[in-house]
């Protein structure tokens, strides 16, 4: 296992370099740039714009700029935001924990809903619960996530009111109430709508995957043998069937993490959540190249780590899987 982990970590370095090359080229060939905001200013001459480009290093060839950026990155210097003039690592360090907090809670809620619902739907195939769960799952997969988020704000923030105070039933944005002392309930209130929005986008498809995988497993010979030996129904499902049925779901979850990060972009933008998604959106609008590169590299590293974690979970669920 240790040799496998070392090999995967060594493979991650060249992969991140290739990702950084592709992203750097794409960002730099997009029309506009950091100087676009100055081009319509009548007080600035062409000499002023050329001076700004020299100060930002934009007058150099793209390969030279990339090598300078990569060399500084390897030295631990991620550069400075072109807008705030703050270090990129400082900007990311303030926002990354907030995104991990939001995605972590969403992941736990999603798994707590999707796994039992998918398993029960398979065990009680064609029952009323199965039909209701399948219908809701299809509806969840069909609803655009950004539209659902706006509906949540309209219903729970703009329409419904607290009968005691007359205030909106749930906050419409932010991570906590500004100026208020720390409160666990206040944090939970601000989490409810963003988590509901993200959970809809992920739980619906996970329920379908879990149901299909469980239906395939519960008809295997070893399940019938376990039941013939007198094993209880719950023990057969959770001890024998669940581990094998969960393997496809682990694969889907690992491959689906980029979608979860993109969903966080919409969620954080709609609900003004101070995380990486909101930071990426603001940086893209302002052509903040250094900050964009830092955000994308961090997200790519997190996705690579999540795939590695999925491989480790395979080994825990199925002892037949060995890594050399």
TrEMBL record:
GO terms (BP aspect): transmembrane transport
Matching PROSITE patterns: ABC_TM1
Q: Name one cellular component (GO) term.
A: plasma membrane
Origin, by domain of life? Bacteria
Q: Which UniProt keywords apply?
A: Cell membrane, Membrane, Transmembrane, Transmembrane helix, Transport
Similarity annotation: Belongs to the binding-protein-dependent transport system permease family.
Name the record gives this protein: ABC transporter permease
